[in-house]
Amino acid sequence: MELIAWAHELAKSLLAEPLPRRWAHSCGVQARAQSLAPVLGNDAALLEAAAVLHDVGYSPRLVDTGFHPLDGARFLRNVEHADERIVRLVAHHSCALLEAEERGLRGELEAEFQLEEAHLVDALLFCDMNTTPDGERTNPTDRVAEIVGRYGPESVVGRFIRRAEPEIQAASSRVQRRLDSVGAGQPM
């Protein structure tokens, strides 16, 4: 529980005031992570901490490259000395390698941060892509459409998210099947 409280307070200090909508999203992603506890076992707290921290790289205090997974992961590693697994999840959340490629940063991301275990990468992607910018539940199809609409189809983010959509759908389905297999399924 200490890990989750630390992560929540850190994310709140970085996002709540300057980016209240991003903070609402992060809280919603954290709530989604809590709902995955039945399939995560000993990794439940780790995922919940990563979920609330996943977007800290958007904080105006942390922006360096302008690529929030990289900026957030570097801060968590270099300043906060956070658990290495949380740092890796933040660095690679929601198909970040594809966006890094669009931005010319894939080599940096891959060189600095290993991928975390696939089931946790899927779980964080599920939480992020099933949560609206306001922290409400949604589904991956609507979430991708919302992102494309917000950023524009020809933007870096618009191009990346459309490339990532097949993996977003596949990862969400894998997580949903795991939830269903333990009788904890809930509608995406």
Task: Walk me through the structure.
The longest helix is centred in the last third of the chain and has 26 residues, at 156-181. This protein is an all-alpha fold. The protein is globular and about 45 Å long. It has eleven helices and no strands.
Key words describing this protein structure:
globular; about 190 residues; mainly alpha; 11 helices
End-to-end C-alpha gap: 26 Å
Count every beta strand, where a strand is a DSSP E run of 2 or more residues. Answer: 0
DSSP summary: helix tally: 11
Overall 3D shape: globular
Spans with pLDDT under 50 lasting ≥5 residues? none
- Largest sheet, strands/sense/barrel: none
Please bin the fraction of helical residues: 55-70%
Order of helices and strands: HHHHHHHHHHH
Q: What percent strand?
A: under 5%
Instruction: Kindly provide the radius of gyration, computed on alpha-carbon positions and rounded to a whole number of angstroms.
Output: 15 Å
Mean pLDDT: 96
**Helix/strand class:** mainly alpha
